[in-house]
Amino acid sequence: MHRPCLLVVFGTRPEAIKMAPVIEALRNYPQIDTRVLVTGQHRGLLEQALRTFGIVAHVDLALMGAGATLDAQLAAMLVAIGAALERKRPARVVVHGDTLTTLATTLAAHLRGVPVAHVEAGLRSGDLSAPWPEEGSRRVAGVLADLHFAPSAAAVAALRAENVPAAAIHLTGNTVADALRIIQARIAAAPALADAIEPVLARFTGRRIVTGTVHRRENHGAALERIAEAIARLAMREDIGIVVPLHPNPVIAEPLSARLGACARVALVPALDYPAFVRLMAASTLILTDSGGVQEEAPALGVPVLVLRDVTERPEGVAAGAARLVGTDPARIVAAAAGLLDDPAALEAAAVVRHCYGDGHAARRIAALLAAALAT
Q1: Which CATH code of 3.40.50.720, 3.40.50.2000, 3.40.50.1380, 3.40.630.30 fits the domain covering 188-350?
Q2: Would you tell me how many other CB atoms lie within 10 Å of the CB of residue 250?
Q3: Distance of CA 122 to the CA centre of its chain
Q4: Residues designated catalytic
Q5: Could you tell me the strand order of the sheet in which 323-325 lies?
Q6: Confidence of residue 67 (pLDDT cuts 50, 70, 90)
Q7: What is the pLDDT of residue 98?
């Protein structure tokens, strides 16, 4: 019996984490030949996630470092992914979110008449400069994909406002909730999975943990220096310990290390694998981040978030009171953090478990919709 090939494509750690539940759910459909292609956009971080979820890539393009500029990277991806599509001849490709890998795959598939399914479709900040260049990438996917798996009602509304046919849009929830549920269950069964973070937590025994993560391009340069200054000022408090997992990009790691390396109550740690990072988030009193994934994960753990951006494409957490936009001004960040750390009632109101981004079963819905599309 001929089995149609479904090619799942991603290149970064966040994509791998969010696509892993979909790949797992597709194993329930033996009539589909599910294949995984990774671009290697984030090499080391991607490999962490692949190991965590037991994903074996059928095609690894190993394109990290293919170009110093975004257009050079995109060009290399477009050519390499196009060649892979010629070899594999998939019936459909599946992409996620808004990375360069997503943009290149969507374009390469479109140029070959291969239909595209878009997971986490419809997120919009309304500002092409924030996040940059991701907002542009996901808008392109919104035009060229023919199946849109929207994580929220707001995402559905955004797609409808862009004249995407209603029949092409499916409200599924966000697969990050699935990934978080899977990893929490694994940690509960085998706590040693998250052991990498335990020495850091032990260092701050008796203090409340504040976690900080930064990686977005629009926060490089002066914005990153402002964020580092805010963290340094917060670290003057004696009641907290601040843990900052460093993104391996030296444009991020070096300025943070230069400003925060001498702060006694700041632990700069290498990028953590997903179980250790989930353990860190769960142990935190407060999280400062510009990450979209963390904005989604923290509310499900009952940890309030200060978002180091001026706009967000994930308004659900803000509307629920789990997240607050604070930008990159040090005084504003410090004031917002103090407003929670020094006000037990405000902290209690923010630190409530909220499932803003799905029920943990989005992947099952997506797999069923993909199977139905391939059967027609």
Answers
A1: 3.40.50.2000
A2: 10
A3: 15
A4: 98, 120, 134, 215, 217, 247
A5: 266-270, 240-246, 208-213, 284-289, 305-307, 323-325
A6: low
A7: 96
